[in-house]
Amino acid sequence: MFIRVCLFFSALFLAGCATFPEKLQVADPSQLVTYQDAASKAEQVKGKSIRWGGAIAKIENKEESTILEMVYYPLTSYGRPISADESMGRYRIHINGFMDPMVYQVGRLMTFTGELQGVENGLVGEHKYVFPSVVGTNYYLWKKLQRIDISRVDIWPHDYWFNYYPRPYRSRLIIRSSNNSSSNGQHSGSVSRPSTSRPSGASTLPKPVRGSKEIR
């Protein structure tokens, strides 16, 4: 009976872990536009809904709105972006109201829902870039993953003169933060490939992402 109860609560816990935050949930996820489609055929999917994530590359405050330039990363089953050394590209998302740059800092991970507005031209440094453009409806700022140092003492059986005696040993588990400079989207070299004939970004289909496993 005890085992059944444990399995029941374990299943509930896993189901909860795989659920998007309430503000990011949508009625029909199958109707969402992927970043690949937005980058390669923006005019055909213009006006449709998106749910994208990524790392903040730039934040710009306007008089009544905020523009976030995001490095795109795919999402986990519960909506957190999977940061990696490479990305499919960048996009811009327009949010009504003021967003404090000290809170929404470069490198922080966010997930958005919104409506695709097409594309807009811009620069990444001095490099011309074509950004998929989104008007955001909801967003979620993910907490930073902190380094946790866990030490524990366990009991291990020790064979001593044909009898078992407890022998303590010490083990250490370190969970390292994934929000570092190599994976938070602050670099632009791996985002787009320079072209001498036309701007990069949404004008070409980006290369696949090599995602990395993320700890919630």
Write up this protein.
The protein is mainly beta and about 220 residues long. It has a domain at about 15-145 and about 185-200: Nucleic acid-binding proteins (OB fold (Dihydrolipoamide Acetyltransferase, E2P), Beta Barrel). About 10% of the residues lie in helices and about 40% in strands. It is built from three helices and eight strands; from the N terminus they run H-H-H-E-E-E-E-E-E-E-E. The chain has helices at about 1-15, 35-40, 40-45, and strands at about 50-60, 65-75, 90-95, 110-125, 125-140, 150-160, 165-175, 200. The strands form two sheets. Strands 1-2-3-5-4 form a five-stranded mixed barrel. A two-stranded antiparallel sheet has the order 6-7. Strand 6 and strand 7 form a beta hairpin. The two termini are about 30 Å apart. Residues about 150-155, about 160, about 180-200, about 205-210 and about 210-215 have low confidence and may be disordered.
